[in-house]
Amino acid sequence: MDDQAKSLLSLRHSAAHILAQAVLELFPGTKLGFGPAIADGFYYDFQLPRALSPDDLPAIEARMRAIIAGKHPFTREELSIDAARAQFADQPFKLDQVEALARGEMGEHGEAAAQPAARVSIYAHDQFVDLCRGPHVANTGAVPASALKLLSIAGAYWRGSEKNPQLTRVYGTVWQSKQELDEYLWRLEEAKKRDHRKLGQQLGLFYFSDEVGPGLPLFAPKGEIVRYLMEDYVRETQTRYGYQHVWTGHMVKEDLYKKSGHYDNYIDAMFPPMVDEEVVYRLKPMNCPSHMTLYNEIGKHSYRDLPLRFAEFATLYRYEKRGELTGLTRVRALTQDDCHVFCTEDQIESEFTLALKLVREVLNTYNFTDYKVRLSLRGDQGKYVKDDEKWDKATKALKSAMDANGVDYFVAEGEAAFYGPKADFIAKDVLGREWQLSTIQVDFIQPARLGCEYIAEDGTPRTPVLIHRAVTGSTERFLGVLIEQFAGAFPVWLAPVQALIVPIADRHNEYAQYVAAQLREQKFRVEVDARNERMNAKIRDATLQKIPYILVVGDKEEAAQAAAVRLRTGEDLKAMPLEQFIAMARRVVDAKSLELK
RNA sequence: GCCCUCGUGGCUCAGGUGGUAGAGCACUUCUUUGGUAAAGAAGAGGUCAUGAGUUCAAGUCUCAUCGAGGGCUCCA
Known about the structure:
By secondary structure, the chain is of the alpha+beta class. The chain folds into three domains: 3-190, Threonyl-trna Synthetase, Chain A, domain 2 (Threonyl-tRNA Synthetase, Chain A, domain 2); 230-246 and 287-485, Bira Bifunctional Protein, Domain 2 (BirA Bifunctional Protein, domain 2, 2-Layer Sandwich); 499-590, Anticodon-binding domain (Rossmann fold), CATH 3.40.50. The strands form eight sheets. Strands 13-17-18-25-22-21-19-20 form an eight-stranded mixed beta sheet, sandwiched between helices. Strands 1, 2, 3, 9 and 10 form a five-stranded antiparallel beta sheet that branches. The longest helix has 24 residues, at 3-26.
């Protein structure tokens, strides 16, 4: 972390303390939770005597400014555990944290510390004392009041657990200067403009309807073609990499999920059952059990058949909780570009490498470079299947495959699937929220549960290892992130309408249709804007729709069998013969280029 | 699911302290046939998310339900 980042951190953390003092003064009896600095700001969690509304924020902010004006120095002090207990006797959450520190835990989620704490540090300014690691600025006056703003109010569970009381979280931001604050707020506004939900509607890609239900997107023609092209591209690439596609439908008997273990782990996230006399069915929330069943039905497998790679573009239905739904990035009907690779233990590394190559190729095509890779491992507690030996084996296999491929990853304990560790590719949306896209997972557990086998070289039956893998994750989520990444201006190969023909006057309509026919003949997606509008209006509308090419045709173009080509960027390529335009566009599309010419 | 906020014609939004709805864009029709980011005119379109309640009277107040947004939790 550089000095700049460090000083911002202590600035924001100090602002959090000032916020806490202000709230404590305005709402006596408030109990304090955690109040850290975060990316772009800070927050503080409170248990308040009454519900807080955004209308309260100006008063709190005013109080904060007064504390800042007081230029109270921040002072650090160390206390013994007992002294800390006395200090925070009327602050139950602080007390809870003192005990956690004494037990040798640290942080909000109780990560293990090097050793139990014998002493804790507190920071004080003015009338306010907080249990805190620091650091802080010298005095409250060092926080620029003009660069401070409280942003929002949210609920947040103590220590992040649903089982604990819910506190009120106040989010705020502070910067070194008012100018930086303004720039930040401006960035937020700009980001909202490229929000995929807004652009999806403006570009006519997809809609949500109360009539159909929450989290169930409806794709208009322009959205469907993008979906189709995305999936077609992954399908083509998968085929090229030696994956085979299968189809396993939308419903499955519930019993299968009891066998696989999904019933115990994810029953809450499945849609309610459909009951047909004695038999209970579920909408498919995942493919693995279906693919393993298919593997079994096909017959006996020889080790010579492995690896066997079953890919499927299946729409899955997951009963996400109401408050979790978000545009296309979190839906109840999602189309996964899923795949299950049945292989031997010896093949794990090469199969991982193959999947990784595929993922990288696809992400690269979309110019997706801003992602990180998380190695998700099992945590101490929870849903994980107990079989240490197999977990160790799977984790080792995954790690060595990542290392062999030079993948730069970070480790996250407690993020694994119940059946094994995974490598997740995580990207951010315009508002900074992180979403898992691609994933590669090693599974030593499920194949045995569903009785998958292959006959080994020595003639004995063995259980294959299963590698779960998704390239873009889900079409819906990836599309959402793509829309934001391109701000709606898709590369030509993905653009719903690649070229719009604009006849200048009615007498050019016929030629415009001719041009359109020529281009359609060459498999381009084109439209003719024959509305009774002036050319300027048509160009404006096409540009706002981010159509890559605008082909204006008038008398001159008709005479020359040409079109005047304008790019959505505003660049005018002037008139060119149709063949020349076709050749240019062909080259751009075939290369899946991000350029327009 | 939980905390907070919001829900007015297809879209973007007006509608102080309650008295039965407005604009721009889009749409339809007409005029205009115009050379690189919005031609002009007329018209049609809303039981103000839904359901109760308070009131002589509710888009405007109360409650509930549904939906959306921000956050938390969860994410095979």
